[in-house]
Amino acid sequence: MKDLLTYIAQNLVEHPQAVDVQETETDGNVVLELRVDPSDMGKVIGRQGRIAKEIRTLMRSVAQRQGKKGPPLPLQTSPTALCPTLPPRKKNGGAFCVRHFFMEKEGVALKHRYLEAGKIVNTHGIAGEVKILPWADDPAFLLDFDTLYIDGQPVSLLGARVHKNCVLAKLAGIHDINEAMKLKNKVVFIDREDAELEEGAFFLADLMGLEVRDADSGEVLGQIADILTPPASNVYVVTGGKQDHMIPAVPEFIVETNIDEGYLRVRLIEGM
Known about the structure:
By secondary structure, the protein is mainly β. The chain folds into 3 domains: 2-82, GMP Synthetase, Chain A, domain 3 (2-Layer Sandwich), CATH 3.30.300.20; 104-196, Beta Barrel (Elongation Factor Tu (Ef-tu), domain 3), CATH 2.40.30; 202-266, PRC-barrel domain (SH3 type barrels), CATH 2.30.30.240. 14% of the residues lie in helices and 36% in strands. The strands form 5 sheets. The protein has a 6-stranded antiparallel beta barrel with strand order 7-8-11-10-9-12. The protein has a 6-stranded mixed beta sheet with strand order 17-16-15-14-19-18, with helices on one face. It has a 3-stranded antiparallel beta sheet with strand order 1-2-3. β9 (147-150) and β10 form a beta hairpin. The N and C termini lie close together (9 Å).
């Protein structure tokens, strides 16, 4: 269990060398204490405790299979410690671009065609530019598009440039800061038909719901229910099988991704 937690944590954080896991066992009760670099706390906790919850669920499942159990008390340690067998609940392979998925047009669901590509988080300057936080591996991904979609309507992208982790964009019809302010917090969509992906790259939306199979036995382990996106590598959350799994999207685990046939073949290590 210690090795499994160490591996998962190292693939979630930006400072894997700082990951330290201590395991203690008393009368069948197992406590795993995870310490990370203070700057990585949010990555193992996640939004609303989502990542920590998934880790805790996985580790409890492994413990039960080994005939052990974790104590039912909340964590009470230093700010850099996290115990995934306990309640501090805290939350995203290959090269994937946009992380969310679809919208409807004229009452017909166009599955995965229109993809959430980012969010307008602020204005920039007084001439009507907006600041877009892209939901993509590389902010420059948005620069390749001539048209974005906001509230279901196409909007021409007249100009754009990357600034830090955001894109500063000039949109057609937006002439001043007052008009730009009306777009704040709007989600920006792209048409997947306008996108050119490199070979081996997928939209995360295409992975959601894929059947996950054991590459050796052929057993169906479940379906991809969520995808965690920490800096090191994505992590697939697989549910609907005999037990839940969190699978890092790295070549050591991912044997084959077949979007057309709707399945993912994986090879898990002992304890997962």
